[in-house]
Write a structure and sequence with these properties.
It is a single chain. The protein is α/β, with parallel strands linked by helices. It has 14 helices and 15 strands. The protein has an eight-stranded parallel beta barrel, surrounded by seven helices. A three-stranded antiparallel sheet has the order 9-13-12, with no helix packed on it. A two-stranded antiparallel ribbon has the order 1-2. Helix 1 links the parallel strand 3 and strand 4.
Amino acid sequence: MKRVDDFRLKFGKKEYVPIVIGGMGVDISTAELALEAARLGGIGHLSDAMVPEVSDRRFDTRFGKDKLRLYRHNIHSSDKSGIKFDLGALANATRRHVQAAMDSKSGDGLIFVNCMEKLTMNAPRETLQVRMASALDAGIDGITLSAGLHLGSFGLLADHPRFRDAKLGIIVSSVRALQLFLRKNAKLNRLPDYVVVEGPLAGGHLGFGADWAQYDLATIVAEVVTYLSTEQIDIPVIAAGGIFTGSDAVSFLESGSAAVQVATRFTVANECGLPKKVKQQYFRASEEDIIVNNISPTGYPMRMLRNTPAIGAGIRPNCEAYGYLLDGSGGCAYISAYNREVALHPDAKTIAVLDKTCLCTHMRNFNCWTCGQTTYRLKDTTRRLADGNYQTLSAEHIFRDYQFSIDQKVALPPLPESATG
């Protein structure tokens, strides 16, 4: 019976353990988590979601406070069109975050950064270009383009000296999306180095509509693998979404995937950036607690826990400090929904906004509990302690379990020293 360790992901002449830890923001995929994946010979992701805020937390910078001070006069205005990110500060924050991770890197693996197209930041083209270029400047091994089709993203990097050196990959949820990307970028003579095929059971934003449940990861992966083979295009395919055990991973590796991308089980790793109390919420979740809704201002469906504090919370938009989802005209679906409720309830001290959420503030505060469909199974990967909480696990333990487990088995972690006497 094969294990994940019987396979290798190949980039040119170099080989890696075919396990990729997906990018989770805001700073849920921490540098510590990515560094463990690289140390163990796989691939870890940083997330560049709200990277100035991440820099402020990690390096005691003041990007958020400086931006708020600049635009404080606009707090009570519904017009956010004049709120802009300082591109120099954005570049500085990105370089600082990425370089700190790369300077600490050990092992034979790689560290990538996940760049979301939907972080439009009131200047979609300019801010995306700065984020990507600054990550390359700081030495990142690769960039995974997510949350959008990214038809023009490669073009934004075409003049960068590392455009053909760094690994560049895209996330798609259909063979049609891949075909469209390849056709639009053919003139650059630069194929993606890998393609992540993300299915409908993934966490957070989904690349599907309301009919997401009608799709199946194995089917989509097979279509992509067949298409690439037929066209004689050599791009490694990485399957993602709902791969919970090493045996799950092997089934994809045996059927043509070059690697798997996993994230849900790492949300409860010690190295993950989620607060301890939130990790316990993930452990306690039942299958019925996991829902897909449309409260994201991006327009994408989003999977999360039913008791997520962000659902229905009518907080004032804090675009002056954040504003990462402002479109090119300074608009955001949450701002519109919030202003609507304020107009309907002018005397209310607090309001509820049920149809959208302030994703920036809630993700920043770890109050938007996005998750994968298999989150309810996390309790089966660990032990319940005497105090009623579940034992968190090391990233190495989870990684090794994927790498070496067989027969759908999941290895429980060793008991903590406090529990053994």
